[in-house]
Amino acid sequence: MYFMRHRMAQIWRLSAASRTQARMFNKRTTYQRFGDKQAVWQTRRFWYTTGTGTVCGAVYYQSHLEDSPTGRRRFINVTPSEESQLGASAYLQTLNTYKAQLIPRTSPISQYVHKVALRIIRASNLPGSWEIHVINSREQNAFVLPGNKIFVFSGLLNVAQTEDALATVLAHEIAHVYARHSAEKLSAAKALQILYMLVSLFVDAGAADIGRSMATLLVELPNSRQCEQEADEIGLEFMARACYDPQEAVGLWQRMQENEQMVPQLLSTHPSTAKRIENIQNMVPNALLKREAANCPSRDHTQTFFKQLGL
Prior knowledge:
disordered N terminus; mainly alpha; 3-stranded mixed beta sheet
């Protein structure tokens, strides 16, 4: 009887020890089927790396924030020299694209555009030399490249009609250079590209594509419209300081509105023309004060370019 009790106690102790070892084994290991793999985002290393990267990224972002000329906070991590190098490459490509359409510097049209542009540049106090080209095209447009390169399509003169209206467009383009909008957009594109790469690497390539589309709609396009509005504001000040009439900007955009193709503002890089006219009308009074402070002569509407040529 004693032997039986002793034997039963021994079996119970062995059973208890087995259960304890089993619990310890289960804590140390988990059963996985062949081919099963833990997702990257479920690992501690992923979250440690993500947390560290987020903190470092936030510090880097904060250290590269600066105020735009109108006081708007923006992220820029592109230096002026990098911006100029990119502009130089784009400049050569643009010259090559339009080389057969470039109007000679000695032509009356080119001289007229140069005269207005240089007057705006002097008022802006921007340093450096400028390259100004007129392209023989019906397109009603103008653009500027980093590094002080301005291109004007001759078709713009048909809608601009007056020297003050042409000054509106050129001052707007020069304002983009003054505010370093190209550097701002390049900086945002670099930051977003890193984000897309991380999402594609740690989450899914499809998620990165969705994120790219959402960023375009919610970040890049709104920022572009904001830059355009800022260039309108700065440009009005430049043309006012150059003794042009900022009120002519309203008439210019009203004429532009007659020929524009309607695009929803949400999907556009520019504000709608109606919104633009409204914004400019609100900016004109302040621009007129700048004009008066510059001791400009009384305002009178400039003759059209074509009248100056006797056409």
